[in-house]
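Hi W., the DAU complex you wanted:
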Amino acid sequence: MTSPSQHLLVTGGAGFIGSNFIRFVMEQRPGLQITNLDALTYAGNPANLADIESDERYQFVHADVRDRDAVSDVLRNCDAVVHFAAESHVDRSIHDSGPFLSTNVIGTQVLLDACRDAGNINRFVQVGTDEVYGSLPLDCPDLAFTESTPVQPNSPYASSKAAADLLALSYHHTFDMPVMVTRCSNNFGPYQYPEKVIPLFVTNLLDGRKVPLYGDGLNVRDWLHVTDHCEAVLAVLESGRPGQVYNIGGNNEQSNRELTHMILELMGCGRDMIEQVADRPGHDRRYAIDARRIRDELGWSPSRSQWPDALEETIQWYRENEDWWRPLKANAFNATMLTSKSGGDS
Ligand code: NAD
Ligand code: DAU
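Structure:
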């Protein structure tokens, strides 16, 4: 298929999803140039793209999305933007919301202004999250978020992402910018920072350590393989309707307890490796995505997220890539330590 873009700017491309997206797009669209603008926060890791760093079609720019001059400079050569750069970990946002407001809201505003003023950006994808819709009750299994579900974010992270989405849509409405917003469920796969539940649990078990399960473990998430997400974002970039929101989901709801039991089983560990710990404050109970719009309009549906195979393959990746995750564990956010330090263990 012909891409509407010749030179794509990806922000946050040194993180988990951004790096998987760049690798996926370089395989799928060999004619495309990609510039990756990333501030290399704790979550940004050049090692995520070590295999393509010398590819002529790829360029890395070490800069912050809040730096207007740097962003405008990079945009001169680009014609489309996929905006992943964000602070992304909910527990960190509960500990300190400052960086979330600054990067996720102000960073998005700076980027949108720079794109509007550049005048050469014909596609802009704001990568968002299902967390903006808030929480569903456990006793209504038929309920799912649609694109017209009102946003009702509950964590500082989700609130900052909701603000960014709304800002991006307002630039479509006000300045006629070709903005599309995606809202995706929980991703899993290679290169995920080992503070998110799946890589945290897998790497703990590889080290013979217990896994900290929050609260009663009944909270439900809808798990999607990162490559399915990348394919959906590419479809929206190329064929999405400006001004539109697209939900993306795996149709793969699991309670955290079910997820934990499956990881333990796949890794040959017993349930005695579970450590029941204090719940996350304000912990959303259930997310569920109705992804009919992207399926019906753009023909996308997940094809790589089937459990337990996809989970087993992911576990295997962490088994084989200790050199990648071991140095990162030291900086991984540890919510358990935080609650026991502050004495809040209820
Ligand atoms: P991540 O934390 O792994 O990576 C974020 C990247 O953004 C890092 O490379 C970091 O260095 C970069 N970054 C942070 N602040 C920056 C700044 N000020 N300027 C430039 N770069 C900056 O995140 P992820 O899990 O890959 O998520 C990527 C995007 O997808 C985020 O917008 C997130 O909200 C969204 N999302 C994530 C999930 C998920 O399950 N992980 C699901 C839905 C949506
Ligand atoms: O839904 C999409 C969102 O998914 C993205 O927007 C976020 O960027 C991404 O981090 C993710 O948010 P979650 O909060 O759902 O992911 P996390 O991996 O932190 O937690 C998943 C579930 O596991 C959640 O219900 C909390 C629970 N959990 C998490 C950790 C880190 C535990 O029980 N123990 C833990 O140690």
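Residues 235 and 298 are 7 Å apart (CA to CA).

W.
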